Amino acid sequence: MNTPKNRLSGYARAGTGGPDQLVADHVELVNRIAHHLMARLPASVQVDDLVQAGMVGLIEAARQFEGGQGATFATYAGIRIRGAMIDELRRSDWTPRSVHRNSRRISEAMQTVEAREGRAARAPEIAEELGVPVETYYQMLDDHAGAHLFALDEVGGPEGEADRVLEGQEQSPSRRIEAGEFREELAGALGDLPERERLVLNLYYTEELNLREIGAVLDVTESRVSQIRSQAVHRLRARLGSWLEDVESLQIF
């Protein structure tokens, strides 16, 4: 239970005098997370908006932190800060409706092709199912690339410890079970991706390389890396299906 006594104990373990000091000591964490997210977003998003939302998340984290749950404050706050920024992006909804519509069409086309062929759908097959040239399909992927936040780092990533703390404090037992089952499904879907798509997601979300750096590793252009990442995300959405209907409440995406 998040009682005043537990919070005071948490501040003592963190080596601070209270929430104000925790906030002051971790402002740079907000800036770092904001700039990391900016590398994944279109130019229309302002970093100051992310920082402002992240500061709200940091303040809430400082107020709610319990030091006895096994996570450091920086780890716990990182989840809160990132979540606050993503919530702000969702509220802003800067993505054109046509991009959302085409994204759904791509996922549906992938589902259809993979059900028919019994294997991962290839780009020409997806384009044919969509009724568009391959070049148009790639453009649809490009349009989508900066318009989707997909928190793969919450599946066994370095912040998993804090994620468990958040679950324990904020979710009912049934929601924790659903979240765990979803993560298992997501981990399985990741393992079934084509090798190159799996590698790109790992380098991008786990190793935190940017698109240019991944392109250097794979010896392809930055634009091609963006397309591979976008296609992988659509493939995951197609395979996870009905899980995504409740994704907001599970706090996975």
- Radius of gyration equals 20 Å
Largest sheet: none
- Mean pLDDT across the residues is 77
Number of strands: 0
Number of domains: 2
Terminal Cα separation, in Å? 26 Å
CATH level-two architecture of the largest domain: Up-down Bundle
DSSP summary: helix tally: 14
Task: Report on this structure.
With 253 residues, the chain is mostly helical. It has two domains: 89 residues, RNA polymerase sigma factor, region 2, helix turn helix motif (Rna Polymerase Sigma Factor, Chain: A, Orthogonal Bundle); 154 residues, Butyryl-CoA Dehydrogenase, subunit A, domain 3, CATH 1.20.140. Helices cover 72% and strands 0% of the residues. The radius of gyration is 20 Å and the shape is elongated. Sigma factors are initiation factors that promote the attachment of RNA polymerase to specific initiation sites and are then released. This sigma factor controls the expression of flagella-related genes. GO terms for molecular function: DNA binding; DNA-directed RNA polymerase activity; sigma factor activity. It holds the Pfam family Sigma70_r3.
Highlighted features:
2 domains; Rna Polymerase Sigma Factor, Chain: A; 253 residues; DNA binding; disordered N terminus; disordered C terminus; 14 helices; Butyryl-CoA Dehydrogenase, subunit A, domain 3; mainly alpha
Topology, element by element:
Layout: H1 4-14, H2 19-25, H3 27-38, H4 47-64, H5 73-92, H6 97-117, H7 123-130, H8 134-145, H9 160-170, H10 173-191, H11 195-206, H12 211-218, H13 222-240, H14 247-250
Helix pairs in contact: 2-4, 3-4, 3-5, 4-5, 5-9, 6-7, 6-8, 6-13, 7-8, 8-13, 11-13, 12-13
Domain RNA polymerase sigma-70: 49-62
Region (Sigma-70 factor domain-2): 22-94
GO molecular function: DNA binding; DNA-directed RNA polymerase activity; sigma factor activity
